[in-house]
Write a structure and sequence with these properties.
heterodimer, A: 122 residues, alpha+beta, Arc Repressor Mutant, subunit A, three-stranded antiparallel beta sheet, 43% helix, elongated, B: 201 residues, alpha/beta, Rossmann fold, seven-stranded mixed beta sheet, two-stranded antiparallel sheet, 29% helix
């Protein structure tokens, strides 16, 4: 059995600097499972005003990835990544699928799809 | 430690979600340290489980030493995996430690979660109380899966339900987190319960 979690204390300076101290508006609260990818416009758009972290996200998101996966690949907390993703979505450089966070509690249709998908795995 | 390896600064290249996928959902896998959360996630995940750090407290004490900012935050590493279902939906499974002090991470993760699978080790039932209590407090529907270890004492279902103080409608299943079919079957029991909860007959 290996460790399930790891608790540690880290300097908060870097995430704080990356987000400029912002915690983000409503768009920065994308749930961790929200899928995003770079928009077609990202390939041609200039990088003026983008931070290195923004550019890394665009490079990473050549296909669909969740907020959590992006955070894991960047080695940044999801709370920081959410703010950066919101910046990119606002500039039209990143698209989220679904475009808005889904309902707070999924409906039965979603649950039935999950059930069917799991049953077909057996 | 697995979570240490998953935190490797150079993780493998991203395995993208198939372009046919139109939506995502998530379930939590909760329980105490060592109960097998990461094992279960690894067993069913199509990607090598990844680890991400949730920030536990933003409001840490900030002390200035000659202008140097030394604010610190505590973080907790959460392991997660992914399953693509029927080519059109991805299901994320987040391993969530059960201890009371991780509650802030729970609140963030529980937002939008369909439900939770609470893993229990019968060798230490009391260790699971925190996780189950928090699920009840947050009103997040859940099923209980006993992860059977070779030396686990074999309690009867009635005794387990009583010890864990479960409602009669809360599913209780036995699984082996190392086994694919067994783990998927536990997830099916959970999702079936979630449908029953959402749609009372």
């Amino acid at each position: 059995m290996t460790g399930d979690w790891e608790e540690r204390t880290t300097p908060a300076v870097r995430p704080y600097v990356i987000t400029g101290g912002r915690s983000g508006g409503p768009a920065a609260t994308l749930p961790w499972e929200t899928l995003v990818r770079a928009a077609d416009a990202a390939a041609t758009a200039g990088s003026a005003g983008l931070q290195p972290e923004h550019r890394r996200i665009l490079e990473l998101c050549q296909g669909l990835l969740s907020v959590a996966e992006i955070a894991a690949h960047l080695g940044q907390p999801p709370s920081v990544v959410q703010v950066l993703l919101a910046d990119l979505i606002e500039r039209g450089l990143l698209v989220a699928r679904p475009p808005v966070p889904a309902a707070e509690r999924a409906d039965v249709t979603m649950l039935r799809k999950v059930l069917h998908g799991l049953e077909s795995r057996l | 430690m697995a979570s240490k390896a998953a935190c490797d600064p150079s993780p493998p290249p991203p395995q993208y979600v198939r372009p046919t996928v139109s939506g995502a959902a998530k379930l939590l896998v909760v329980g105490p340290l060592g109960v097998g959360k990461t094992t279960l996630i690894k067993t069913v995940s199509e990607i090598r489980p990844l680890s991400t750090e949730a920030v536990m407290s933003q409001a840490g004490a900030r002390v200035d030493h000659g202008g140097e900012r030394t604010k610190t935050t505590t973080t907790v590493a959460l392991d997660f995996g992914r399953m693509t279902l029927d080519g059109e939906l991805v299901l994320y499974l987040f391993g969530t430690p059960g201890q009371q002090r991780f509650l802030p991470a729970w609140r963030e993760l529980a937002r939008g979660a369909l439900g939770a699978l609470a893993l229990v080790d019968t060798r230490d039932l009391a260790a699971s109380f925190d996780a189950i209590g928090q699920l009840e407090d947050m009103d997040l529907p859940f099923a209980v899966a006993v992860n059977a270890f070779p030396d686990s004492p074999g309690y009867g279902e009635a005794r387990l339900r009583e010890a864990l103080d479960l409602l009669p409608r809360t599913p209780l299943v036995v699984c082996d987190a190392r086994e694919y079919r067994s783990s998927v079957t536990a997830l099916i029991a959970l999702v079936t319960h979630l449908i029953d909860t959402a749609e009372p007959s």
